Amino acid sequence: MAATESGKPTESDLTRWDRDHAWHPFSQMQEYLQFPPLHIASGEGCWLTDTRGRRYLDATASIWTNTHGHNDPDLNAAITEQLGKVAHSTLLGLSHPVGAELAHKLADITPGDLTRTFFSDTGANAVEIALKLSLQYWQLKGAPEKNRVIGLRDAYHGDTVAAMAVGDSRTFHRRFRPWFFPTIKSPRPECEEWAGTVHHADDRWALHILRKLLEKQADKVAAFILEPSVMGAAGMRLQPPGFLARAAALCREHDVHLILDEVFTGFGRTGPMLVCGEEGVTPDFLCLAKGLSGGYLPLAATLVREPIYEAFLGPFESFRAFFHGHTFTGNPLGAAVSLANIRKLEPMIASGALSAKGEYFGRRIADRFQDHPQVASIRQRGLCAAIDLVEDNRTGTSFPVPERFGLRVARQARDHGLLLRPIHDTLLLVPPLSISGEEIDLLTERTLEALNQTLAARHAPV
User: What's the CA dihedral at 227, 232, 237, 239 to 10 degrees?
Assistant: First the structure.
């Protein structure tokens, strides 16, 4: 085996091991293996550095998780302090200080009586837990027939089986449909927005269908689940302001649980700490992950209203307990860095600085892309945006699927020091919340350059 004098693996070692042994998520490996792998070695602020010393602006916030940048001294200190005490101790029959403190903090920053936190490790698991809790609650209340779940069209809630079932990601999950439990799909509302201006919004049809479904089937429906404000993996599909409150009112009227998946939208991504708090909605279950730990460690939480928690109480022999758990539930390192992350976010949000940054981000995206002939539409809210690319925006003609145009733009962006992750031919710009105005300028300028260079190469003579 080749190695450096220090005994550390060489670049060629890493590349060979990656090609011979790794299986990357959401990747067609035959396609992935056509290109040299990019090995990320370190990070600082909004930038990542590869093993060859080249820097890249992390325009995906390491898949939508990073809040204060990489190698943040305050978050580092929180982990280091906790590491000097204990790295992991179970919550199965025990507690630990940072776990109790984080549960208290989450109850403090969430609306209404979301007083109970069940910790896990991923957003999909947070959703899975909410679904199981809702179904068991109705069993305990003597209504086992309430076992259906309504979700929105095009929704994505994760890749565990129940999370897949309540979603509607045809590309990702259609092969597994034979194993899904029956669910009901309702239309999602429509909204186009960027630079702080709503250009088109309509939730009337979505609310009409949801109302009809609940009027006819509420006695069989346990819960309605949605990502509020922005449906991330659906391509940053926006909901009109007020849709969440109107949908929540329908759920209350028909005695159906409301599950909010704020795995993506929570912790400042769209501006407020939580969308539900901003809109004055208290869901029955609130699912959190991604930005919860600032992008440092896998930690998730499902918050539950107190009356639902109380339904699970009783003597052991009643078997009302929620028999569910994860080995690293409430990991102390994850809890410690989450507390530090929230405390650092609070003044950014309260001062309006994060909201102003989101507005600037929207203006710069509009300046660069709204008149581009290959841009069909733009959606932006807070520090997340989607740019839909087409062959010709006058006719709406899409690029041929085998061309993988969005991926080609993302690969071209690497030559400009950007890391992008598209969904098909939709470019997603989701930087760390700590990004500066200058870095926003750089991100939008270099994304445009990558797009134009990819187009030029497409039309160049062979």
Answer: 30
